[in-house]
Amino acid sequence: MTEATILDTSRHIIARRSLIWSDRGTNFLQVIFGLGLPFEVDRQSVTIGTVIKGFYEVPSNSSVFTEPSNIIYERKKRSTSRWTIYTMLEKFFERYNGGDGKSCLLKSICEVSHSPLDDSHSILAEIISAVLRPSSTIEEFDHHTNMDYVSAEQLGINGGNCARLYSECKLNILEQYSRFID
Question: pTM of the prediction?
Answer without folding.
Answer: 0.55
